[in-house]
Specification:
The chain has 234 residues and is of the alpha/beta class. It is 40% helix and 13% strand. It has 10 helices and 8 strands. The strands form 2 sheets. A 6-stranded mixed beta sheet has the order 1-3-2-6-8-7, with helices on both faces. The protein has a two-stranded antiparallel sheet with strand order 4-5. Helix 4 packs across helix 10.
Amino acid sequence: MNAKTSQDAEPYLPDSPKERSDLDALRHAAAGCRGCGLYENATQTVFGEGSAGGRVVLVGEQPGDQEDRQGHPFVGPAGRVLDRALEEAGIERGEVYITNAVKHFKFKRQAGGKRRIHEAPNVGEMRACRPWLLAELRALDPDVVVALGATAGKALLGSSFRVTKLRGRLLALPELETIGTPAAGREIDETPPGEADTRVVATIHPSAVLRAEDRDAVYAGLLDDLKVAAQALR
């Protein structure tokens, strides 16, 4: 592959169309991605995992501290919240592939401290990592995509996405070529969900439950949104 230093992961994807449609080949290639500066401080690339035939793709923001250390998505506290909500919503874990919009952990350290504090990826970092997310979606061709939080929503539906406006609604997933662009935002207003091959449901990130004062109420909202996705699978 023709890798080079840039704000774009595209040069790091496999050259072969066959490999680009193979999740294991994509995961292997992503391990060497230098498409943005986040790799410099992260422990490793954290690529998506789950069923290659999964009908549901869950998209989060980025790996957290535990995910970065272990190399697997959603293995920290937010992952445990998500696992519980999926079970209660009736979404079989074997039907799920889970990934993040950005594949490296972005963080800062407090002065003199060792604790790594999460920082949201910026627009350039999201754009740089977009080719990996597109490749995953093309390889999987899911029935439903769930956007977990604002960053995932913007990575899929464009910068105008707002969780408060769109959460819990069954929407048509935009054409993959437009994912994350302003055109994606226009498409969701123009395409009825019933006419789409793939639908998308937006909700909060599970970590929002952990930060909430009223965890039960916030968790109930997450669960209700996931039930919309579960219903779309029937």
